[in-house]
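Before a colleague's protein record goes any further, I have to sign it off. I want your independent view on whether this chain really folds as the tokens say. The record follows directly below this note.
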Amino acid sequence: QVQLVESGGGLVQPGGSLRLSCAASGTIFSANLMTWYRQAPGKQRELVAYISSGGRTNYADSVKGRFTISRDNAKNTVYLQMNSLKPEDTAVYYCSVGSNWGQGTQVTVSS
């Protein structure tokens, strides 16, 4: 059974930074594509970034240059470093592998 546990969310002022973590278990982590999504109130869930087993990354246009996805295969963890945060980044952030999802972590960007 795959389990994904996100952490690191919180309240931050515009321009601030947060680092999200997603710890995975029950899967061969190093072999999997890991993805971060987010869902803002009243909006559809959208892809934020993904990282392949080989470290190839891809980002939504809205976060390019501000967010960085990375992974530590020894710790079965994927990270999302978020800099220069904007109010429009406010959402619940989820990590995903295959058809599995974590419970999400709330990110609120507000002054």
DSSP finds no helices and eleven strands in the chain. The chain has a mean pLDDT of 95.
